[in-house]
Protein: Carboxypeptidase B
Organism: Bos indicus x Bos taurus
Amino acid sequence: MRFLLPVGLIATTLAIAPVRFDGDKVLRVKLQDEKQANIIKDLAKTSQLDFWYPDATHHVAANMTVDFQISAKESQFVQSALDQNQMHYEILIHDVQEEVEKQFDVKEDNPGRHSYAKYNNWNKIVAWTEKMVHKHPKMVSRIKIGTTVEDNPLYVLKATKTYGKNKIMTKLLDRMNFYVLPVFNVDGYIWSWTQNRMWRKNRSRNQNSKCIGTDLNRNFNVSWNSFPNTNDPCQEIYRGPAPESEKETKAVSDFIRSHLKSIKAYITFHSYSQMLLFPYGYTSELPPNHKNLAKVAKIATDVLSTPYETHYTYGPIASTIYPTSGSSLDWAYNLGIKHTFAFELRDKGRFGFLLPESQIKPTCKETMLALKFIVKYILKHTS
């Protein structure tokens, strides 16, 4: 049974003003020893430190570089505490709101239309998927694999055989299908455009908590509950009430399971840090084909650096970036997909999550070179 709400009732709902970050700063602190690491952990208990890198307090350790956002009203207190303890830090971003607005630094040729050089809202992305299917019906099809908690569609594009101008892509698509999920966290992505540019989780409601959302990349069924620090709904890295509890995670998991026999690789794209990661995140043990994954990652990062000298580090998630549980990468690997990689795209923290649009095209160009190498390697070395 469905219920229809009177239009008048909807119209009277008060609009929520978008979150602003005027005067917020992003600090980078280089921790020299365990004492300094503990000072940051103590500050996180008394002040609202929004960790950008690593992604949570419990990953903070000696000899680590830590990036975090601090509100305008708390920045003076935090900076004074760092100064008093003779801790070296730099201000990466002096005003987060200014940086949010400066992100959009590419002029629009056709306002309202999708652009490969700009950040596109969800409606533009959906329109673009429709255009691709209409323009290339023999090459591209769109599959709806599920819906989000707010009933937005989850679309996967399937790219198959083509005979186009690009010989390498023609060869790759002739031998392999590509399934592309443009946006995994659709609800959270929409919220980041309309209400809070820094929003990361999805938009599901949590029982017995006023805090909204689950970190979808902590919600996969692999060592899901191995880190107790991920069980707080108010944390950015909240794992959810159960593995695959979120509609988005369940839809992606079901889709991969149903296509498992034909899937040779699983590759995800995140930001930021300039890293190419592979399993494992939940343990320091190395996967059986570690040497092969490391070899592929090394060459891929070398290839990536050729156009702009953008340098990536590579390695297992746990030792290269930080330990993590419930990630899609580890889950896909343990499911049987032995070539799984995660790109942490530009940059290394100067802009962090607020990379300007002017860096989109070069980021795509260099990443595509690495991606092509990985695909060619897999075609050559797997049956």
Remarks:
- The first helix runs from residue 7 to 11.
- The chain has three domains: 25-102, 119-259, 263-383.
